[in-house]
Amino acid sequence: MKDVFARLGSDLFSAIVFLVVYLVTDNVILATSVAVAGAIAQVIYARIKGQQLNYMTYASLALVVGLGAITLLTNDPRFMMAKPSIAHFAIGAIMLKRGWMLRYMPPMVVETVPEYVTAAGYAWAVLMFVIGAGMIVVASTGDLKLWAFYLTVVAGGAKILAFAVQYVVLRLIVTSRRRAAARA
């Protein structure tokens, strides 16, 4: 389980850095700059250590650098509020890659129910698209408090709930299949 969180933390490193710096400083430019620098440093560090970088890492880097550059150029609060929807759509599109979630699963799950993991990956893609669409609707209101609530409570809560449901469902299915195999 620690390995899964380590991989997720690595994939979401720049987003976490952005959020922390923004919450501490309330400075979009500084938070964006630090997040972009952090994403680039993370890739350089991994390359120096000889770690193999996957599709998600490069896609994340491209998103951070591209969206970060647009943020730095426009400094538009409406764009800032809509920007997470672009990231959600892009991540959703990346999640449409068959089997992307397999790297986050323990070997027992991958060996027992890879088809369910693939289906869960597609469900996560749909969730990202729905959250992204909601983000656009909320950003169009221009209400920063509503946007912050949606971003943290609604979007964050939906992801936590989806993770919990996925965990329980996969655990039940794996347990059931392993018991059936032991009986056979």
Automatic annotation (TrEMBL):
Q: Which InterPro entries does the record cross-reference, listed alphabetically?
A: YciB
Keywords from the UniProt entry: Cell membrane, Membrane, Transmembrane, Transmembrane helix
Q: Which Pfam families match?
A: IspA
Transmembrane portions of the chain? 12-41, 53-73, 79-96, 116-141, 147-170
Superkingdom, taxonomy of origin: Bacteria
Q: One Gene Ontology cellular component annotation?
A: plasma membrane
Name used for this protein in its record: Intracellular septation protein
Q: What is the originating organism of this protein?
A: Bradyrhizobium nitroreducens
